[in-house]
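Researcher: I'm preparing a figure for a lab meeting and need a structural model of a single chain. I don't have an experimental structure, so a prediction will have to do for now. The sequence is pasted below. Please return the structure as tokens so I can convert it later.
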Amino acid sequence: MALDKTYRLVPGTTVFDAEQSAKGYHLNQFCMSLVTAENRTLYLADERAYLNAWPLREEQKRALLDRDLNAAMREGGNIYFLAKWGATLGLSFQQMAGSMTGMTEQEYRAMMVGGGRSVEGNRIDHAVLDAAYADPAPPDVHATITGAVFTSHVPAIGAAMDHDKTDEPYWRPVFEGYEFSRRWQEENLPDVVFLVYNDHATAFDQSLTPTFVLGTGASYPTADEGYGPRPVPGITGDPDLAAHIAHSLISDDFDLTLVNEMPVDHGLTVPLSLMFGDVEEWPCKVIPFHVNVVQYPVPSGSRCFALGRSLRRAIESYVGPLKVQVWGTGGMSHQLQGPRAGLINREWDNAFLDRLVEDPVGLSRVAHLEYVEEAGSEGIELVMWLIARGAMSDVDGGGEVEVTHRFYHVPASNTAVGHLILENHPRVEGPAAKE
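Model: Understood. Here is the structure written out token by token.
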């Protein structure tokens, strides 16, 4: 299932999509630096020196130095960002637009006074469009989802690892539950982990509360959560796969916030440490996917489950021999605030694990009230597990899953620890059909 990008065929038009954004990221960030008077002064004093301070390709620098907006657009520039650059040079929007059409400012203004450019003669040629929609030969290889990992992401677990406390009597039972998992992970190493987690007031505070955040950048540093950054590596992203997923999920009517820069906190790094151990760098790429489960309204279990199903279609439509795992993190039962702080519900937790395997559709219908009442206010993190579960092949009848490992322990600091590994066995090759 190729993604529909026929908008690229509209003549004389550059649509700013995820691929263009990745290509022009530093170029557009350079433009944004010019919103301060100090930086505008520095730029105008020595354009080349200012540009050299940015990680720009020479083609991008040359486009700016030559005042060639068409070249800047080809290099990933977006007109709203480039407008900051144009304003620094004293150019009006009509001057900039005119320069891209081969007109002087006066000629362009006269055209606009006369009613603007006609759409006639500026549409896609029918033969070009027909060729774009012709069925191409299907690619030989698509990405596959090989499994799902579900785990709690307790910050104290990371602290125990960082301070060599894993063999202490209190912590030993927790880490023994992941010994098999590390061996399994070594034998089933993916190319990419799509890691679903929630930020804990680290990258996102009350100035910005996005519901779903897809990391489309090349790398992300480890966050400082008040105690200093954990002594673990930052993550390397996969911008190409992330851009493909963004296009697919948004086309499937999921509203995402796309982020190229953000620190990643224990919600992401603790699961990586549990599954990979103490390493100098993570052995695979990681695409971070944040879900707001801190401030209500939070997404429902059914919405998360549906997103997982859409995610599977997105990944399986990606051309290339990538092996992908989808991880759902957070939970299990715990409450960190109020007179009920310390709440643990073993029975409910284990019933959740049972239903996650055997009845994920029914589990996705559980209301927020039940999560909060039975699993504690922070137990709502478990809705994130439903994204990973929805990405498995058995959900749509396209295969089956195998329970490889299951573990449950109380306590780890304030939390019950849950962990599950499902291996994914698609019944057929190729991308999943969309309903």
